[in-house]
Amino acid sequence: MSAIFKKEFRSWFLSPMGYIIMLVFGLLSEVMFMMQVSTDDLTGYFNGLTMFVAFIIAILCMRLFSEERKTKTEQLLLTAPVSLFEIVLGKFFAAFAVFCLCLAETLLVVMVVGFTGAPDWGVIFTSYVGYLLLGAALIAIGTFFSSITQNQIVAAIVTFLTFVGLMLSSSIISIVIGMMTAISSFWQSVLTAIIYVIPIFERYYEFAYGVINVSTVFYYLSVTAVFLFLTARVLEKRRWS
Amino acid sequence: MIEVSHLTKKYGQKIAVNDVSFTIPDGEIVGFLGPNGAGKSTTMNILTGYLSPTSGTASFNGFDIYDNANECKKQIGYLPEQPPVYFDMTVKDYLDFVYDLKKCDQKRNEHLAEIMEVVKIKDVYNRIIGNLSKGYKQRVGLAQALIGNPSVLILDEPTVGLDPKEIIEIRSLIKRLGKSRTVILSSHILPEVQAVCERLLVIADGKLVADGTPNDLSNDSTIAHRLSIRVAGPASDVKKLIKSINGIRYCEETTKIESDAHDFIIESEPNIDVRRMLFNELAKKNWPLLSSKPLDATLEDAFIRLVDSPNNKVGGKKR
What is the ipTM of this complex? Predict the structure, then answer.
């Protein structure tokens, strides 16, 4: 796993890709901060980052597997004495590491606010925890989409659209509930359950208010595990088709 | 020892490999021969664990490629049709990566240096693979397969796209490598397998149609003997005479090369040597036989016959 992690992580910085991603995310997040204007409450700033995070992760994950499949280098990985999970985890953690570097760029904003004002350090801490968990889950989803196509662009677009759908999902579902006032309590509970599971971005806001809820942590880790597992299954299935 | 039994691979309705079985003892250089699309690459991909067979098994020294995948994969060095190299890495980084990936326990620097010496890529050590020529990429691919000293080398069309000098080098390299390990290489180039391999497996339409040494396959008695001859004499009369000789079933004039002589291709019935009779008959008429050259017994003929009609089985060990 460490070999794949190392190779994958380095490959970001062998091409301009890694630098561009970090630059874009850095600039976007700094612009976001400017727009917040002087305040030492960073909740709004962190909440506003979700869109950029979704964008960056779609770009980060797009080539993880699709590129290997297209250039046939996956033959090397799949015929080496390593398990599928090692391959998937190596790639996942490499993308996660680059994401962490991007996230580290926002520390600059935190430092500025720390020097000039008196932010709530607890909330800042939980926000970072939230972003690490959200990032892991989104990267797992992006990794999965990258494994089902050979085309990076398709992978990136599908991943990003999925993220946008997930962002809008809770409002869409509540509109649906609002329109169907007459629905039975059974369907209401089904929809509530969906509201509980699908809106992966909404869950983050708990962290933004300084709450670390064990069930939410578990939720993010489960989503991550499920999609990494599915990725390995996709690779396994391709051997048989 | 490599044991393959009843290997079948279906892609949907299409059968790519159809009930292929063979055994390869340690240290043999085996050529996998067949036209494009015959199932060579698919078979190799199954042997290396990249694909799974629809049915049948493959095992290396008793380890099944599916049940004990990692033990098998440690013993195999694989060079796929397209060398699996990362274009943005340097040769050094790439070989380091493969070394880590294969979890080797050899001393890293010495092992890699030795391999680079063998495949002659020392001079491009620090260059980016994407900028190398096809020949060098192929050699880097071969270096990758050699990392970890695998006892089995599986090479899918290792000389495709190389220049003649490189082809000769790679061939002699494979021969050298084959002294201490088992090598399976695929090709549709006959002189190549003839030059390198001790044994040939001919595959056509997913089926194994022949298995034997290159000599077994080319000196097959079912293939008619053919001669190219040059006779100084009147073309139509000579042809008539030749056709009348017992045992000759075909005679056709070919391109004329010398001004006062004619060239013919003749084909005799299997197992009949017509050369003496031919000479005597022509001598009687005073039409000198200027040259006579055997055309038969090429692997090419055997190959074309085999792959054209898989039911027409020839070869050392008939299957």
Answer: 0.87
Pair B210, B149 in one domain: yes
Query: What range defines the domain where residue B243 resides?
Result: 226-294
Q: Do A73 and B73 touch (CB under 8 A)?
A: no
Query: Tell me, what CATH number does B118's domain have?
Result: 3.40.50.300
How far is it, in rounded angstroms, from Cα A225 to Cα A233? Answer: 12
Read off the DSSP letter of residue A32.
H
Which is more confident, A84 or B204? A84
**Is residue A64 within 8 Å of residue A77, measured between CB atoms?**
no
Shortest Cα distance, chain B CAs vs residue A31, angstroms = 33
**In the prediction, which pLDDT does A103 show?**
93
- Give pLDDT, residue B317: 42
B212 CB neighbour count, 10 Å cutoff:
20
Q: What is the pLDDT of residues B206-262, one digit of tens each?
A: 888 888 887 777 665 455 577 888 998 888 888 888 888 888 888 888 888 888 888
| B93: contact with A, CB 8 A cutoff | yes
Cβ contact, residue pair A78, B100, below 8 Å:
no
CA–CA dist B31, B183 (Å, integer): 8
Looking at the structure, tell me whether residues B189 and B282 fall in a common domain. no
